[in-house]
Each structure stands twice: as C-alpha cells, then as structure tokens.
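Can't attach files on this board, so I'm pasting raw text. These are the components:
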Amino acid sequence: MNKVFFDVGLSLDGYLAGPNRRPGNPLGDGAIAIHEWMFATATFQQTHGAIPGTRGGGQRGADDDLVRAVVERAGAHVLGKRMFEEGEVGWGEEAPFHAPVFVLTHAPRGPWVRKGGTTFHFVTGGFAEALTRAKAAAKGKDVRIGGGADTIRQALRAGAIDDFTLHVAPLLLGSVAGQGGLRLFDDLGDLRLLAEPTGASHSAKATHLHFRVRSKG
Amino acid sequence: MNKVFFDVGLSLDGYLAGPNRRPGNPLGDGAIAIHEWMFATATFQQTHGAIPGTRGGGQRGADDDLVRAVVERAGAHVLGKRMFEEGEVGWGEEAPFHAPVFVLTHAPRGPWVRKGGTTFHFVTGGFAEALTRAKAAAKGKDVRIGGGADTIRQALRAGAIDDFTLHVAPLLLGSVAGQGGLRLFDDLGDLRLLAEPTGASHSAKATHLHFRVRSKG
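---
Top answer:
Structure tokens for the assembled complex are below.
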C-alpha cells in the first residue's frame, strides 16, 4: 500500500520559503540557506545536475542517506501549480523528479515528458484526483507531496499524510521572511494533527525530525 | 564561565503558549499538551511536587535525563514578570526552581524566600541587570532564561544566549493558539541568529533539538 508523505526544509522559525518567490527565485529571498545541507549532498547534485558554487560530486554521509531515501521511496509526486511554474524555468531539459509528477492546475494541458524519467501530468480535478492518479502511477512505491506550502496543507487537511520529515536549518528567517514569507504550519484552520516522533538526527547544517501521523482529525 | 541558555517546549507549529494565559492557566489554552513528556518525568514531579493525574513517582529514562540535566546545570534563573505572576499562584510554599530567580519587573519589592532553596529577586533595571545578577548568583553554574517568550526574545536580541534546547511536541496548536497564542520565534525584528545543531533525540512524546549559538548578529 502506498504511503503518502512530505519531506521539507524549514528554518527554526518555521519558514519554508521567503518573500518575492517567482520563476528564477523559486524559494524566495533568503531561503536558500534553509537547504544548504541538501544542496551539498551527492544525491541532490546527481538528481538536480550541477549546482553553481558547490564542489563537484557532492557529499556522502548521513545527510546524503536521507536525501537518497526520499528519492528511492517516491514513485510519484504531487506538486502545486505555483511550485511547478517557479521550478519550470530552472529545471531545463531534465527535471529532477525522475518519476511521474501530478501538477494541480486549472488549465488543461497534455503530459509534458522530460529526459530522465520525469513526466508532468496536469490535473484539473483537484487534490483528491491528483493523489489518486499519483498512487496508481507510483507502482507500489510511495507518493511524495512535494509542495509548495499550500499543497502540503491541502494534503494535511485532507487527512492524506501518513508520515513526514522536517529538516530544520539552524537559523532564523523572520527578519527576511516576516513580510511575505511562508510558514508551513500556518492557515490550517481547525486541523488538530497529532503525530508521533519516529526519528531524530542532526548534522552540522540541519536537524532532521521524522514523524508518523497518528490522528488526522 | 557561566553559559546562558533556554530550554522550552514548542508545538510543531512553533507555539510556546496558548491564548487566555492568566494566573491559574499559566500556559494558556491547549498548551498543556506541549509539555506532557516533561510532566511525566520523575525529575519534574520531584521538583514541582505531585502533578494531579500523573502516576506516582514519574518516569525515568531519556526524557527524564534531559529534565534532570537542566535542573542540575541551572544555578540561577531569569523570569519575566508575567511568567512569575502566572506561576506564583500555583507554586505554593515551595517554588520549583530551587535556586535564585531574578524577575524582571517595574515594581520594587524585597526578596521573596520560598522553601526548597528558591529565592525570588525583583529587578527593576532591565534584562541586562537581571542577567548580571543571575550570573553572579549562579556560583559557577549556568543561567537559565526561563521565559516567557518575551524574556527569551530579549535574551536573544541582547546576544546573551550561548545554547538552547527545543522540545517539540508532535501536535499542531494553531487551531487553538492561532488567536492569542505565542510563538517563540516571532517579533524578533532584525535578528539573524545562526546556530549549530549539537544534538537530536526523540521519545514517544517529543523530539529534543539542541543548538549552540554561532552568530548572534
């Protein structure tokens, strides 16, 4: 049975993205620092191509093991339209998913096939339809809710998330992100998620928190 | 040399306290759940007296070790006036600090000695004075900035914090705390704290994150 999960980086103060997000600045101002631990890993550099300013090859080790585990378990992805559009410009011919990606949108569009195994499918029927199709496409693997924040919140509100991982970068982003940045756990209305810690570890650049969802009420 | 630290419980969405805080409801609505892991420990029950509804004696183990380590390293405490007043009602004759406590206030008042080694000193000269006096009183041990959120923020803005621990309870409090709850890492203005992870562990009820402050700018 497919599990449905998300796996995201946050600042200490809970920001997932900074202000002024747009194509070419997909994380928003200041938020690259949240993901430094991930950008440095060998697996990230392999799946995303060379990242400017990083040393060739990337780093192996515990952080890399975490990134690789996510790549290996994700048989399909669900993305919001904005995250797709913000990433689209930078991905080039080979998008980094290497699996089917279901994009929530209002504009019908045929599948968009990229090199390396990524095919984007554009879903106009809402989150539930995207999730159903992603589960069917995942070939027994798990479904990653890739983001952005709105899409992860939709998944949480729908009670769809089985487990999740937060990678907390040891910095505050509020001075930059306070105006227009996005906190993951905002605007969740009446949601009273109850989870259970299933793991915790740290490297020099991030603390990794793993949870299983117990009650999605 | 004294270290200055804080050690607090937060929800997944960053709340330290719920709405409607007042004497008799010091944590605010819904926020008791954040601290369940701590209330269950033997050391907490010893230092705070019996907690209604908890089993006699409390639990030993990894969570208890963390609580005991904090009690042992704290030679003095700094508290905000509101946290003092909210706690005052419930503490009874034996306050749970068992060390000198420096309370930030505008109202001069003589020292208030409680059973068990807690003496409250009321400081009208601001955070810097309270910290200087706490360091002098700590007898070579460390100084804990006990809270509330405003006092910890003052300490962060003053560049006074050497290390800190966050105990993250695996639940969302926004549905209760969104109106009037307190997030620890809010209202920090231009502060760009940069820390380094120094530890991470978890129990069934909380994930414990330890950090050393690298840059207080």
